[in-house]
């Protein structure tokens, strides 16, 4: 097996298809397919499953991908250490998160506090659906992921994490709150009940084909509202909340520097569920200095963004 073959596997994971990966690698599709087949024969495993919907990594393929990332990172570090310029340093960081504001706030704080010796860096923050966050961590597209557990999804996700070799580390536990505009009819309340929300539009993130167990909001037994709006991004969510009586449900962690003073959060009374925000990473993953620095900023961002 060669280092080049490991780079091929990583590029397939990033591109999502052999055709796209071959284009980015500037090789032919048959040559790339042959390289994967040679690795499968050498290791005695099946790396990719092929169907009419495309390709997907097998469980053993994901294990190989994890090793591929670690090996190539070590090689990059080796070349950087011995061939790089003296007294210079680089940093690489990749994060995936559900649609929260505090991961962005943490990233801003980290960037502004980077040591002057860091002469180059590549930082990626992806916002996506719950299943995408988990997949990014599994394929090592991201070093850590940020999502939440509730009483409703904890059993399902905890079992999934155990099966996939993922560690969940809690960052904070929060009682669900609604996000509304300052001029909303409920804006003067210190708390609201689910019953009082039924006449207002409920705006939430479209989970596509994901089940409720992957939801980004707390799932209630009774329908929260008969008026439902679905969006795919945070900017769309905030725009609708600012200009209508729509509400969203979340942790209550608002970053005023990012959303301004026109959106507020109010606790939901009588809610027996909680949202435990946490980070996930592969069990055998090495959380380097950059990741540790970001985690520290993440803890601080949560303290800043959540009202006392």
From TrEMBL:
The keyword DNA-binding applies. Residues 1-58 form the HTH lysR-type domain. Pfam families: HTH_1 (PF00126), LysR_substrate (PF03466). SUPFAM superfamilies: Periplasmic binding protein-like II, Winged helix' DNA-binding domain. Belongs to the LysR transcriptional regulatory family. Keywords: DNA-binding, Transcription, Transcription regulation. It comes from Veillonella magna. The keyword Transcription applies. This is LysR family transcriptional regulator.
């Amino acid at each position: 097996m060669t280092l080049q073959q490991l780079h091929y596997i990583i590029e397939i994971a990033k591109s999502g298809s052999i055709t796209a990966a071959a284009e980015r690698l500037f090789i032919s599709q048959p040559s790339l397919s042959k390289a994967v087949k040679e690795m499968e024969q050498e290791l005695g495993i099946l790396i990719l499953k092929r169907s009419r919907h495309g390709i997907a990594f097998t469980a053993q393929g994901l294990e190989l991908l994890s090793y591929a990332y670690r090996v190539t990172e070590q090689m990059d570090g080796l070349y950087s250490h011995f061939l790089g310029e003296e007294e210079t340093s680089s940093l690489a960081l990749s994060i995936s998160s559900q649609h929260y504001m505090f991961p962005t706030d943490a990233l801003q704080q980290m960037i502004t506090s980077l040591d002057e010796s860091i002469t180059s860096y590549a930082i990626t923050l992806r916002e996506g659906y719950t299943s995408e966050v988990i997949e990014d961590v599994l394929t090592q597209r991201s070093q850590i992921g940020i999502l939440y557990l509730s009483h409703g999804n904890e059993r399902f996700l905890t079992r999934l994490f155990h099966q996939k070799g993922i560690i969940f580390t809690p960052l904070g536990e929060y009682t669900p709150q609604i996000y509304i505009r300052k001029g909303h009819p409920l804006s003067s309340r210190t708390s609201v009940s689910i019953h009082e929300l039924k006449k207002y539009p409920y705006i939430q993130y479209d989970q596509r084909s994901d089940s409720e167990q992957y939801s980004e909001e707390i799932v209630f037994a009774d329908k929260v509202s008969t008026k439902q709006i679905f969006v795919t991004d945070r900017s769309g969510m905030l725009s609708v909340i600012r200009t209508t009586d729509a509400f969203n449900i979340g942790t209550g962690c608002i970053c005023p520097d990012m959303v301004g003073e026109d959106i507020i959060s109010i606790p939901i009374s009588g809610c027996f569920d909680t949202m435990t925000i946490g980070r996930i990473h592969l069990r055998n993953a090495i959380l380097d200095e950059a990741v540790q620095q970001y985690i520290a900023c993440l803890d601080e961002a949560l303290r800043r963004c959540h009202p006392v």
